[in-house]
Amino acid sequence: MEKWFVTMKKADFQSISEKYHISPILARLIRNREVIGEEAIDFYLNGTIADLYDGMLMKDMDKAVEILSEKIRERAAIRIIGDYDIDGVNATYILQEGLAGLGADVDTDIPDRIRDGYGLNRNLIDRALEDGIDTIITCDNGIAAGEEILYGKERGLTVIVTDHHEIPFLDAGGEKEYLLPQADAVVDPHRPDCEYPFKGLCGAAVAYKLVEALYEVMQRDAEDVDYLMENVAIATVGDVMDLCGENRIFVKQGLEMLKRTRNEGLKALMECTNVPVDRLNAYHIGFVIGPCINAGGRLDTAKRALELLCAKNRRDAVMLAEDLKALNDSRKEMTEKGVEQAVEQIESTSMQEDPVLVVYLPDCHESIAGIIAGRLRERYYRPVFVLTRAEDGVKGSGRSIESYNMFEEMCKCRALFTKFGGHKLAAGLSLPEENVPRFRQVINKLADLSEEDLMEKVSIDMQLPLPYITENLVEELELLEPFGKGNTKPLFAEKNLRVIRPRIIGKNRNVLKFQVEDRGGNRMEAVYFGNVNTCLEEMEKGGEMSFTYYPSVNEYMGRRTLQITVVNYRR
Length: 571
Hints:
5-stranded mixed sheet; globular
């Protein structure tokens, strides 16, 4: 079940429209995205690289830069330790490229997802010590590795942390006591004492800010590293950061750079996945390029994805890109199989009554548990945990819905876990196998979810009658891009529409094509990509329907026609 509602934010749309030479429709859409005030609207519509904040505003950035410029001059051995996901890999690459460009003696290490787990651990530190490393820089991790950093410091290492995760804290009688690692410098915009104006950066963006500041201090042209902005864009979209503020500029600029990238690896990856480079947008990063980069860390080693970014010639790049694409294809197959098994488990047992789904798939690869949980959450609109058998006990990932704070609920039954962490909408956990049935029972008993909570909310920007859909409007909507989390694609709605000639097309029979006609006789082409068979059955009952949609222009054999892409439907 879905609950549709129209967002009705107030503003003087006419004067915004006149001041910025945009239509009142666009003015309303910008207001719906909480962009308020002249400065914010101007930044949203016209922000450029020149509007990015100075990285030196971050707490400890001065310390990090001072230490590194000295280490580079001394030719001390520096090691970058990243993470195995898309953000960690790109952050590692940015630091490696940036430091190497300054003549540093630098190498990299990335933990193995299954052997090492997330973040800095003693193995990685021992390995660095054995290799004669003097300084470690973390990226996209390190903020929660207090003990490990202390271990490294006691053994003579210099440690610089760059991260973008929340700072761990203890609750001391209602007061938060933050646990900052005792590194030589800790650069993280989430530090409570950090005055950097924008908190929503990904790990790669923090790494980029460090490189930029380092170039300026070492009197090199910071524009030399502008090209790394394409990696910031990939990481920002791939790590699902909010596309507002600085992130919007990074992604907008980075996408333009990617269209003409000189990076052999990225060129090869876009070629072998058939990404239309001239029309490249955030969707292609999120759903095509990103999953291939992540597949290395999921099924093999993230070092493969890093090798791809570092590839110096076309031959190596093509080989590495094809490897990653093949890994991602097998990840997709494994995901489909896992989803099928989970659906069968849910629908053939009493589990289908549970407000929180806890699915145990012992033979599923632990790295795709989170993806499967996400797919089940979409299908059932309930919080979902997917558990798999690991080397020692059971590991799992959770994905939540808006009205259920997953991390807080897990804190209430923490005694069942050997390890857990996460936030409101996603979590990771480990527990002994014998605790699985108990966990399912307890987490459901604790769940206080009403029927209303379990109804998916569809937020509509505005009702828009068919005659308002023009090529000009479709073109104007591009000003709002890039779309993604925190800056969603506009969603319009119209009711009392008659459906004409619905038919399923496409070689995979996964597109529903039809026409819609309003009561004034205005007609328009329409397509739907969801569960096409169910939708067709609804349409064949006859009568008028309501749709949510976004408009686009369909180009086919040189002909341009306006059409709507339907997202939700109901009678």
